[in-house]
Each structure stands twice: as C-alpha cells, then as structure tokens.
Amino acid sequence: MKILLMVPLPSLLREPPGFPDLGIAYLARVVLDRGHDVRVLDWANTGMDVPKLRTYLREERPEVVGIKFFTKDMHGALATARVVREELPDAKLLVGGPHPSAEEPRTLLEDFPLADFAIRGEGEAGLGLLLDRFGENGAAAPLADVPGLVYRDNGTIRHNAPSFAGVPDSFGIPPWELFEPKRYRFCYVGTKGNPGFMAPIVVSRGCPAHCNFCTAAMSNGSPVRHRSLDHVMAEIELLHGRYGVRQLMITDANFTYDRGFIVSLCEEILRRGIDISFNCPTGTRLSALDKETLPLLKRAGCHFIGLGIESASPRIRKAIKKGVDLMEIREKVNLINKHGIGVPAYFMLGFPDESREEMDDTIGFAFSERFFYRAFEAAYPLPGTELYGYLKSKFSVERVDWGAFDIYASQFPLSRLESAELTKLLRRLRLRVRLNPAHLLSAVKRRVAAYTLMD
Structurally, how many domains does the chain consist of? Predict the structure, then answer.
C-alpha cells in the first residue's frame, strides 16, 4: 500500500514545525519495514499550501493518510483532514499524536468525523498491526486487539488500551533518507566553507513526573525506557557520517533522569572520537547533574541543558506538582554555568487562580538568574490534564471546541488575569527577551549562517 504520513498544513498553523518530526519518522520506519510505500510531508521548505496539497494528493493517490498533531494545531489538523477527504474520498484517514493520545476517545472521533481511525499513545505497534489488517480484509478485519486504536463499530465508538511496552530499540532507527537535515533551514549550524547540520534524536521514552498540565505520559507512558547504547551510537554515527550532522538536539522529556546512562553515552562519544555537539532542550530531573557528570557532559560536547521551571511561586509549584524546589534549581543553574554549559529556562504564566503578584515572582526569578535563554508561554489546558478539568469546572462547560480554541484570546482564563491582559504581559516579556544583547547576537549569527549555506 501507498502510505502518506504528515503534519497539518503549515500555512494553517500559528507555529509551523521547523525540525524533522521524529514521531512521523519512527512511524515511517514501521511502514517501510512492513514493505509498504511511504511518503512523508512534514513541510520542510516545501512551500506547500492548500492548492499544492490538493495537487499532490491527486497525483500521489495514497491509500492511507495519517495526520499527527498537537492540541494547539487542532484547527489546522481539521482543515487538512477536510482537504484529504475531499481529494481522496476512498482513502483510510488516521489521526494520531499528542492530542489524540490525550483526548477522550469518543470526543476525538466526534471532533474528527472525517477520520476513520485514531491511534493513541505510541503508535508503532498499533499502526503496523492496523496496516496488516487493511491488507487482510479491509474494514472487516478484527480490530479489538490493535493497541491504542479508536474506531467506529456499527455506530459505536470503541477504543483499545494504548501500549507502552515496546523496547525502544525495537522501533528501529528513523529512515533519515526521508528526513535529510539539509532540507530544513533551521537545521543549518555550520558555515559555507564548513557546512554542518542539526538533527533531533531521542535516547529514551516515558515520563514519570506528575505535572498537572502535561500529557507526556499519555503519549509515551510513565516508565523511562532507554534505547541501548549501541543503538543510539549507531544512529549518531549515521547522522554524523552520512548526513553531515554536527549538532544533536536530544528531545527526551527525561534525558537527565538516569545518571548512569548519561555517563555511558558521554564516555562512548568521547571514546569513538565523534566530532559532534548536543543540546538537551528539556529537563525535569536535576539530581544527575553534579560535579562529576557536568564536566563529562561538557567534554562530550554538551552546549546547553534546558530546564522546565514553569513557576517561581511556591504555591503554584505545589499546585502544578513540580517536585524540585527553587533552592535546588538555583544551585544547579550555578553549577551548570560554572562548567561552561548554558541553561535555557522555560516558564509558564496563567495557572489556575494565579495572581499577578505570583506571576511577578516568576518573572523576577527568570531575569535574576544566569539563564542562557528565557521562554514564556501561557498555561494551556490540554485535554486529559487537571488544568482542563479545572477549566471545565470553573466555567461549567462540558467540553472545549479545540478547533476554535486560542489560549491568547480564550473566554476561559485559568488565572486571575483576563486572557487579553495575560497576552499583553507575555508579549512584553518576549520582546524583553528578544532585545537582550546576547540573544540578538546569537540570532544574527544563526540567520547569517543559514542564509550563507543556502546560497
């Protein structure tokens, strides 16, 4: 069968993707290993719009189309699904990703009446088995044992439990020939005389944290499951040797979770003499970052370790279930900086019943510590989270129309600030960050390098 895996059309999104999509990449591996013909549209410099998408679908005629999306991209996903269905009325249409994994199954298919199926949780096992069933007997094949599948059965919406039991090595290595980093403008990190590229990579799956605003565990399970060291190194050497990758972005939710794995990975990179650097944009556990591991991380090529701090208000931190206290964060930030590694910090404003004074505590903390970069976002009530339950209870609503939902203009503010007031505050903070001299210099260097390479 001919399979198309895609994200929503970028022209319909507030924040189009800028990197190869690893979720789609791992699913593409499954499709290829089962002998199918796979196409990928993750919108890397394609200039795709609705008319071009229609032409593409008419020319390629995929038999199965899978759309992966986040809650914030619901509007774009719905619009993309309509285009697919209009051009390919007989194709099987699937949806998956973080939003389908978190949303209540009945609501999900009610919101996506054009979709035939949804897959929740890790999609590798479910997609592979579903494709086998399509080949066996089409829609009449048994579906009750397909992990994570949401489907209609004589007018009844049924759903199977997602599976998070797979050993990460069994998912294989993404087919990087379909996702060459040089196709992505944001992935240029070298110079014209010495070109180099950046690529995302995951070394583990799962998140054991219980943050009340996050859906990570719904997508990848709670236990942290590492790939084997040999498996990770094989991918790193492939990216470095064949695709000119000189910088990795480790996108794990919990790269800093396992001290032993950090040490083993760094030592292996150094032992093999691979000239590559890496960044860790997110981090929830800090205990593994100490006087022994940080020098090793630096020698192995680590440039920065991001911290999801979210709030500096003790009351808010307790409410959202952030386990690390601010004193430990301060100590770790100083220690990480001392070893020459940058610390980007991520903050959220607008949590339930949060006051402006509590937001000011967070802002003051953000600009008083030595952070390499500061990012501010609004607290988003993702489906399946306690924040979403709070919103529904506070405003006596049964459900939110995610296709029309905009946190920056929401009629359902979670905090004590109205949405418009919170939006203005966030805009001022982002401007303050962008006008920081260090940030300006870094942005200029990245832009010059990218355009030089593209010449």
Answer: 2
